[in-house]
Amino acid sequence: MSVAVKLTNVVKRFGELEVLKGVSFEINSGEVVALIGQSGSGKSTALRCINQLETIQGGSIEVCGHRVEDPKLDVRALRRDIGMVFQSYNLFPHMTVAQNIMLALRRVKGMRKDEAYEVAKPVLAKVGLSEKIDSYPEQLSGGQQQRVAIARSLAMQPKVMLFDEVTSALDPKLTGEVLRVMEDLARGGMTMIVVTHEMGFAKRAANRVIYMHTGKVWETGGADILSNPQTPELKEFMAEEL
Amino acid sequence: MFGAFSTNHLIYLLDGLLWTVILSALAFLLGGIAGFFVMLARISRFRWLRRVALVYIQIVQGTPLLIQMFILYFGLGVFGISVPPLAAAGLGMMVYTSSYLGEIWRGAVGSIAKTQFEAAECLGLTRWQALQDVILPQALKIATPPTVGFLVQLVKNTSLASVVGFLELTRAAQVINNSLFQPFLVFGVAAFFYFCVCYPLSAWSRSLERKLNVGRR
Amino acid sequence: MHYQFDFGALLPYWQSFLSGALTTIEITVFSVIIGLGIGIACAIARRSQVAVLRAVVGVYIEAVRNTPFIVQIFFIFFGLSSVGIRMPIIAASVFAMVINVGAYTAEIVRAGMDSIHPSQIEAAQALGLSKFQIYRDIIMLPAIERVYPSLSSQFILMMLATSICSQISAEELTGVANNIQSNTFRSLETYFVVALLYIAITYLMRAAFFGLGLIAFPRRRRLGLGV
Ligand SMILES: Nc1ncnc2c1ncn2[C@@H]1O[C@H](COP(=O)(O)OP(=O)(O)OP(=O)(O)O)[C@@H](O)[C@H]1O
Ligand SMILES: [Mg+2]
């Protein structure tokens, strides 16, 4: 099994504030990892460091052969291998669903319009939104927008997908439809790092759980640590989540 | 002693109005292009470039256009560069326009959420592609009403080109008034002409603004 | 061709520069204070029940905002003298400026007043405030506080516009510069110095508005709540 993502003693500071205090973990290809922890524990920051939306102050990150902290890193090549989905969808409001998906295919992969369209169609079908191809984001529900955002990332055929609390803005019914898409992806063998508060999803879909606390990896293991936590902090966290 | 205001005078003023419009259009075009680069510099990744742009804006917006016109006029003269009045006036107006439009547009670009930039970067787009395909089309909508509003200031301020001898509407009115000495009439007519150009622009800017606000809910 | 800058030639004129700058500040201060009063009155009139009043004020505001200041000042100064009214130049300058400041201020203040939510007024009515109190404390002061940044940048623009008064021979900064450069033939140097002085005045005004804002608004907010 090859290692897809590897963090070694990663330190991230915002000015005085040290947010990641030596974070290390490894994720193998095809693995689905749930990243959990209290608000402010540094989960989003860790994800953002992985695709270099933030630069790190110490340690090293390796993603699919890219050394992220290397000043000579080809950032665009790194980002071609990583897909990221945000809590707030971040679809481009002035573009239709098709245009949202086709933009990077055309601009980054240099496809022609019709080629890009042929790629967009099946990806959209995969998230169950074929009939919305010509809609604008504001015409869609939150859950549908989030599924389009997933499709937009998938279309680029990334090797790793990062999800940052992608269902937090959704009500339970819409949460379900997004989680189902993600579980499909997981079964299809996608390497995924999922920051989530959905413990049900973590139990069903994750091969492994990483619990972060105060900027450190506090506890890690299979999904069973959720029902059988080893540290008092995770125990307390699980109690709060229920 | 006073001659009568005749059709010839009216034609002379209309001719001046034409030059006012030409100068405005020229200033908008050149100033718009320069202003676009000012905006780019203001959002640049390089701190020094942002600083330079900021200093440029503070100098231009901290001095009267009249003084800028004089500096340009005498400056070009001092270095022995002789340019036609239209070019001198156009250059002065361009500097002025670029700083204000640059700032208006930077505000519009800045009002697009940072997350839109991030989403584009995560998809592998370059900064320039993200700006072109994601940020600018959205900023354009927001920037249009204040840009049209600025056009009103621009048209009015071309009147200051008269002080360096450019024969536009205000200068034409001065010339006529010097011979007729009927300032209420002559400057009244000139003011009316300016109003006819500026008022529709003001109204347009306001209606664009309203539509934008309704669109945003 | 190489030009030798000679700022030394301007040294004997430093008092003139200074007095020009002071005149610029004086014209600005007077016209801003009076213009602000007129602007507020016009903003209130724009929202009045009386249609004629609304229309008259509307015409005033649009006429001023859609014509150049230089044409306005020629109209006023040369116009009045053509019918035998000889105004001192500074008075004519302040007069033209006041008319301008009033119109621009009116639009800004009105926007601020429009942004006060009707529920604020209802709440004040429910508390039993008088009409005048509501106008002053619930509508006007918060409105001005909200548009304070736009107002101060508008006033700085108006200060820069006073340079146009030089065209009717007012001895403010630009007028003084015009005289000095024709005496010394050091035009470029003169206008550079004057440009710097304008920038200095701009910063001075920014600092003054900042300080004024700090003093004025927290106190008045408390006053408004205390009524
Ligand atoms: N750009 C930034 N500048 C300064 N501080 C930041 C920045 N981004 C995050 N932080 C701080 O870093 C800490 C960790 O933030 P992060 O967003 O990674 O937490 P999180 O675990 O994702 O929390 P949540 O569950 O609320 O999303 C917080 O204290 C936050 O205030
Ligand atoms: Mg987070």
From TrEMBL, chain A:
The keyword Transferase does not apply. It is a peripheral membrane protein. This is Polar amino acid transport system ATP-binding protein. It comes from the Bacteria. It is found in: Cell membrane. It comes from Shinella fusca. PROSITE patterns: ABC_TRANSPORTER_1, ABC_TRANSPORTER_2. One of its GO terms (molecular function) is ABC-type amino acid transporter activity. One of its GO terms (cellular component) is plasma membrane. Gene3D superfamilies: P-loop containing nucleotide triphosphate hydrolases (3.40.50.300). Keywords: Amino-acid transport, ATP-binding, Cell membrane, Membrane, Nucleotide-binding, Transport. Residues 5-239 form the ABC transporter domain.
From TrEMBL, chain B:
It is a multi-pass membrane protein. InterPro entries: AA_ABC_transptr_permease_3TM, ArtM/GltK/GlnP/TcyL/YhdX-like, MetI-like, MetI-like_sf. The chain crosses the membrane at residues 16-41, 53-76, 180-201. This is Polar amino acid transport system permease protein. It comes from Shinella fusca. Keywords: Cell membrane, Membrane, Transmembrane, Transmembrane helix, Transport. CDD domains: TM_PBP2. One of its GO terms (molecular function) is transmembrane transporter activity. Belongs to the binding-protein-dependent transport system permease family. HisMQ subfamily. Residues 17-205 form the ABC transmembrane type-1 domain. It comes from the Bacteria. It is found in: Cell inner membrane; Cell membrane. GO terms for biological process: amino acid transport. Pfam families: BPD_transp_1. One of its GO terms (cellular component) is ATP-binding cassette (ABC) transporter complex.
From TrEMBL, chain C:
It is a multi-pass membrane protein. It is found in: Cell inner membrane; Cell membrane. InterPro entries: AA_ABC_transptr_permease_3TM, ArtM/GltK/GlnP/TcyL/YhdX-like, MetI-like, MetI-like_sf. One of its GO terms (biological process) is amino acid transport. It comes from the Bacteria. Pfam families: BPD_transp_1. Keywords: Cell membrane, Membrane, Transmembrane, Transmembrane helix, Transport. GO terms for molecular function: transmembrane transporter activity. The chain crosses the membrane at residues 20-45, 57-79, 85-106, 190-217. GO terms for cellular component: ATP-binding cassette (ABC) transporter complex. Residues 21-209 form the ABC transmembrane type-1 domain. Belongs to the binding-protein-dependent transport system permease family. HisMQ subfamily. This is Polar amino acid transport system permease protein. It comes from Shinella fusca.
